Amino acid sequence: MTLTSLPSLTAVPSSLRLENGQGVLQSGRLDLQRPQASIESAPARELPADAITHGEAVRYTRAQMEMRPVERADAALMSVVDPDAFSRLRDALQQDDDGWRALLGKFSSQIPSNPQWLDDAYRLPAARLLERTRYLMDLSAI
């Protein structure tokens, strides 16, 4: 490609007429090669009737949104080790009570002194709870 084959950027289009140094725009049609496409007949726009499903709207509590992943893992372990404390934690989460932090903090401080809780006998049921409840976001599944 040579430099002469490029369009001139300084050439005056035919639709612009110069009079006394002033430019006047005349009506006209700009000739462009625009592709013609119909989006109505595009196969990507056609979805099967069952492709989109609507579920129920879920309201998460502020407490559920504030829980960090490590706190969620500790809460799931609490459900296996101390079910009574976990039921109090679940109630606090559902009622959006800030008391969940104290309940979980008390339990989390006990984990280092109980290394047996890190065995599969405790961790696997806790992992199943996290999976079933989508990491404690669906408290109705408990």
Which blocks of ≥5 consecutive residues have pLDDT under 50? none
If you compute it from the alpha carbons, what radius of gyration comes out, rounded to the nearest whole angstrom?
33 Å
Main sheet, how many strands, which sense, barrel? 2 strands, antiparallel
- Provide the residue-averaged pLDDT: 82
Number of helical stretches of at least 4 residues: 5
Proportion in β-strands: 5-15%
**What is the straight-line distance between the termini?**
70 Å
Shape: elongated
Give helix % range: 25-40%
Estimated structural class = mainly alpha
* Helix/strand order, N-terminal first: EEHHHHH
Strand adjacency order, main sheet: 1-2
Q: How many beta-strand runs?
A: 2
How would you describe this protein?
- By secondary structure, this protein is mainly α.
- The protein has a domain at 62-141.
- It contains 5 helices and 2 strands.
- A two-stranded antiparallel sheet has the order 1-2.
- A hairpin with a 2-residue loop joins β1 and β2 (22-25).
- α2 (69-81) crosses α3 and α2 crosses α5.
- The mean pLDDT is 82.
